[in-house]
Amino acid sequence: MRVLILTASYGSGHNEAARSLAAGFAARGADVTIVDHFRDLVHPVFERVSRTVYMALLRRAPMVWGVGYALGDWMPSDSPLAFGVTRLGAARLAARLDALAPDAVVTVHATPAAALSALAAEGRRVPPHTTVVTDFVAHSQWIARGIDRYCVAAEEVGHEFVARGIPREHISVTGVPLRAEFETGVDGAAARRALGLDADVPVVLAMAGSHGSVGRLPDVTRALGRVPTPMQALVVAGHDRPLAARLTRLARGTSIRVLGYVEDVRRLMAAADLLVTKAGGMTLAEAMAAELPMLLYGSLPGQERRNERFASRAGIALAARSRRDLRRLLERALGEPALLEHLRDGSRRLRRPDATRRIVDAVLEHCRQLS
Question: How far apart are alpha carbons 76 and 120 in whole angstroms?
Fold first, then answer.
């Protein structure tokens, strides 16, 4: 069994999903290849430049990204107004399909999904195609002809795809694929001991993805430093060293500990009572799997704001839109154990820590049916 996984390096969530799925397929004996669509099929220079522009927009002009995201949702993925962007890399993708001859293709980003669908629309024979939606929203750019199955994060997302014309039998509610460590429980007390944290004082974990500068962690650090309730805080700056230095200065004289990039996020989540974060799709899925209550702040326009709306409606997170809201909700969450338990209950209802296995099973079963 040969499986091709197509991803793109825009944010860490898509690649994290690709790696999780690759491990899941490999565990079932499949031969897996991961291809970064923009780097490997368009051009490495294009990938670097476009990713730099994307990150710059998120940091300096997030509203521009939000407008572009909304426009993308307004038009179909094969619209002429896209000026052929969704067909970028299609020729090299066709050559890669010929060389690898995969039995199945799994896409975890909208652009390679559209490129593969464009090949199918031209009459080219393509392998069974599953697309894994890594956010808690439906968006027009994920929808394309020739996709055999949509694996989505939650029932509500499935309803949105049905409302946009996708047959219900083409949709599987699987959750977002996570690393294997999220499938099992972690002892919170042991995690606190390993991190040198007091077992009897609440722990707040703050993070904003692997590139912490696209969040508003300085605001969070200031708010944590002013909360009167006794607590311990871990603030994760990710790969951004200048940000880590700035946060360390802001945290001076408080109980706040600033960390750089952390591999073992599962242990941090097990040790925490509350997560303060922006609403990235992967972060939401991981926190739900860990049954960790969330306070969302600094979510970017576009998919993160829509993820935030989902989380608020689902009862798994609080949402702060201002610095004043942030401090008020921090104090409330730390002072009301019943509120945190309510948010945990929401995550227990919706969590899908075995999403990777569900997706792998769905793909393999579909291939068996076709053989």
Answer: 16
A 10 A CB-CB count for 12 gives: 16
Kindly report the number of other CB atoms within 10 A of residue 256's CB atom: 22
- Starting at the edge strand that comes first in sequence, how are the strands of the sheet with 274-277 ordered? 256-259, 232-236, 203-207, 274-277, 294-296, 317-319
| 317 and 201 housed in the same domain | yes
- Tell me, yes or no, whether 240 and 358 share the same domain: no
In angstroms, rounded to a whole number, what is the distance separating the alpha carbons of residues 131 and 105? Answer: 8
Look up the pTM and report it.
Answer: 0.92
Residues 49 and 85 placed together within one structural domain of the fold: yes
Structure tokens at 227: 């909360």
Are 312 and 357 within one domain? Answer: no
Cα–Cα distance between 104 and 2 in angstroms, integer? 7
- Gyration radius of the chain's alpha carbons: 21
Residues in the chain: 371
CA nearest to 275, candidates 257, 259, 291, 258: 291
Query: Domains in the chain: how many in total?
Result: 2
Tokens representing 351 are: 């969590």
CATH of the domain at 241: 3.40.50.2000
Can you give the pLDDT of all 371 residues of the chain as single tens digits? 999 999 987 767 899 999 999 999 999 999 999 999 988 998 788 778 877 887 778 788 888 888 888 888 887 776 665 546 667 888 999 999 999 999 999 999 998 999 999 898 888 889 999 999 999 999 988 898 889 999 999 999 999 999 999 999 999 999 999 999 999 889 999 999 999 999 999 999 999 987 767 789 999 999 999 999 999 999 999 888 999 999 999 999 898 999 999 989 999 999 999 999 999 999 999 999 999 999 999 999 999 999 999 999 999 999 999 999 999 999 999 999 999 999 999 999 999 999 999 999 999 988 888 87
What residues have CB less than 8 Å from 53, skipping those under 6 apart?
Answer: none
